[in-house]
Every structure is written in C-alpha cells, then in structure tokens.
Design a protein that fits this description.
- This protein has helices at 3-20, 48-51, 56-64, 86-90, 123-139, 158-172, 180-190, 206-221, 240-258, and strands at 41-46, 70-75, 107-110, 143-147, 176-178.
- It is α/β, with parallel strands linked by helices and 260 residues long.
Length: 260
C-alpha cells in the first residue's frame, strides 16, 4: 500500500477513535433506534429538571410544530421515579383528549431525581422503579426512553458517573437513552461561556432547557434539530448563535452516542 494511503487510513482511524471516545461515558447504548417512524404523542415523567424555565416541553413543541408532536408533562418537585404512578398516567380517564389515540402515548420519557442513579441510598430504588415503569410503559404499547440527566455545575465529574449508571440500567431493561447529560458536557467543552445551569447550579437555565429539548427532538425524529424555530419561554430570548450551537451540539451528541 502506498505511504499516502497509509497516512490517510491512519488519520481516519485516529478520527474514528477520537470520536468514539469523546463522550463522557464508558457504556455503549444497547438500543440505538426508537423503532417508530413518526411518533406523535409523548409523556414526560420527571421533576423540576423537566419543568424548570417553563419546561423543555415548550421548546420541543415549538421545534416540532403543533401538527407533528404533542406532549404531556407530569412532574413532581424533587421527585424520584418511585414517586410516580406511571400506570395511572397511562390509564384512561374521563374527558382525556389523549385517549382518542390508538395508543395514549407513543413515547414515555423517564427522568429521575438528579443524583438518584448514583446515590448510595437511592440507587437501588432507582433501579427497581426504572424496571417497573419500563414494563408498565411497554404493557400499554408505548416506547420507554430513559433520560440521562446532567451533572451539577460545580460537580462535572458526575457526568460520567450518571451516564454510566443510567445507560447500564437502561440497557438492562432494553430501553433507549436520551443522552441529555452528555450533551450538556459537550456544550460546556465547546462553549464554557454559555451557561446551562440556573444560579442554583442544579436546574437548567433557558439554554439548558433548550439543549434538553433538542436532544429529545433528535432522539424522536432521527434528524437534526438545527434550524428549527423556538419559542421564547421564561428568560430573555436566547441569542441566535447560541440556539444554533445548542441544536448542533444536541445532534452531534446523539449521532455519536448511537453511532448514526
């Protein structure tokens, strides 16, 4: 083989190797595709991480447009997965407009308490109820997706710990993961000036909520959220260059995570 060809192959191999090891996790996802061609309805089960700054659901709805996707948010402040009665959420209720669908929800997202997957006293509870909820979601014909949450602002080392723990448990239940926490870490590497946390260093800023929504968009529709219009939610409008950056990072992270 020619020297030039060998150099090209070596460069490609280095690029591939670097890409495969860039994200802050040592666990590969078992499920890499949603398995739905055009999901239209979803349920977000979580806590303040999901609803903060008017909720990432507002951003996601704006990016999808009202005819492509609608979602319901059921959250409990400081709620662990064990706080949620998912079976009740998926049951039929009088006057519920979601009951008119063949399946109440196409997709159900499960977002646990911030340190629940890695806390010594809470980890077993997280694992128990993740399994229980995934089974319940499947029994109702919906697809479960587990949200990989982000590290606290002053504890970046949590990124890998959370990702490894959450992906491991999702894999054990053959559930897909939305790599939100990994996207937070990637954005902060590229743009440390763009603050993704609220002043409490825990909850998402408006930029963090948009990044969360952008990852979910990419997971749901297997396409980039780049260029999708967003609505102004609670904080002052984000700068256009910041929106482009966050949507780009979301797509890059999702593609790399799943090997798309």
């Amino acid at each position: 083989m020619h020297r030039k060809s060998l150099c090209a192959l070596s460069a490609a191999a280095m690029l591939l190797f670097g890409s495969a090891n860039a994200l802050e996790t040592s666990v590969a996802p078992k499920v890499t595709k949603l398995g739905l061609d055009a999901p239209k309805t979803g349920l977000y089960v979580g806590n303040s991480f999901t609803y903060y700054n008017c909720g990432m659901g507002g951003y996601l709805r704006a990016m999808t447009g009202k005819d492509k996707w609608i979602g319901r948010m059921i959250t409990i402040s400081a709620g662990a997965l064990s706080f949620h009665d998912v079976a009740s959420y998926l049951a039929k209720h009088d006057l519920d407009p979601y009951d008119k669908n063949e399946k109440k929800f196409d997709v159900v997202f499960l977002q646990g308490q911030s340190n629940e997957p890695i806390h010594p006293k809470r980890k077993a509870n997280f694992e128990k109820y993740l399994k229980k909820h995934v089974e319940t979601i499947r029994a109702h014909g919906s697809v479960p997706v587990v949200v990989d949450t982000w590290a606290l602002q002053d504890k970046p080392e949590q990124t890998r710990l959370l990702a490894d723990a959450i992906i491991t448990q999702a894999n054990a239940n053959s559930a897909m993961v939305a790599p939100v926490g990994l996207a937070f870490a990637e954005s902060l590497k590229q743009r440390p000036d763009l603050i993704l946390h609220a002043p409490d260093k825990r909850h998402p800023s408006s930029a963090g909520s948009l990044l969360y929504a952008s990852v979910l968009y990419a997971v749901l529709f297997h396409e980039s959220p780049e260029g999708r219009k967003i609505a102004t939610v609670c904080e002052k409008p984000l700068k256009e260059e910041d929106v482009r950056h966050l949507q780009r990072v979301a797509w890059q992270t999702v593609k790399e995570f799943f090997g798309w």
